[in-house]
């Protein structure tokens, strides 16, 4: 497993290469801006402006429908983070989408 908040405009090609080499790309759903921002600020390791830059990068360069990573919702119905053990069990239980690295024809 490799995990990082990559900069899409610079590192998307690396992510796609890793997928072609057999890595499964799992996209942890962060489409809960308030929860993501709250957690980011609480962590306190990087200025909040960096989150804004990252969110803008994602909006500009990541088309989940076209790129088709495996999506994993890390939030419950109320928008709070699910327990880590629950997320891990879902990640390990679901079969990978395939390791041939093939992208959809439109990617």
Question: How would you describe what is shown here?
Answer:
The chain has a domain at 25-93. It is 49% helix and 6% strand. The chain has 107 residues and is mainly α. The mean pLDDT is 83. The protein is built from five helices and two strands.
The gyration radius over C-alpha positions equals 15 Å
Beta-strand percentage range: 5-15%
- First and last CA, distance: 23 Å
- Give the topology string: H per helix, E per strand: HEHHHEH
Class by alpha and beta content: mainly alpha
Tell me the overall shape: globular
Mean pLDDT: 83
Fraction in helix: 40-55%
List low-pLDDT spans: none
DSSP E strands, number = 2
Strand order of the largest sheet: 1-2
The tally of helices reads 5
| Biggest sheet features | 2 strands, parallel
Describe what is shown at a glance.
By secondary structure, this protein is mainly α.
Key features of this structure:
107 residues, mainly alpha, two-stranded parallel ribbon, 2 strands, 6% strand
What does the secondary structure layout of this molecule look like, with pairings?
Elements: H1 8-20, E1 26-28, H2 33-43, H3 48-61, H4 64-67, E2 70-72, H5 84-93
Parallel strand pairs: 1-2
């Amino acid at each position: 497993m490799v995990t990082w908040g990559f900069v899409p405009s610079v590192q998307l090609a690396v992510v796609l290469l890793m997928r072609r080499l057999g890595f499964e790309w799992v996209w942890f759903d962060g489409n809960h801006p308030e929860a993501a921002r709250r957690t980011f600020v609480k962590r306190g390791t990087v200025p909040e402006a960096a989150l804004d830059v990252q969110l803008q990068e994602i909006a500009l360069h990541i088309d989940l429908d076209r790129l088709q990573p495996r999506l994993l919702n890390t939030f419950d119905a109320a928008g709070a983070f699910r327990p880590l053990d629950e997320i891990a069990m879902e990640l390990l239980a679901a079969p990978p989408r395939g390791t041939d690295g093939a992208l959809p024809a439109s990617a």
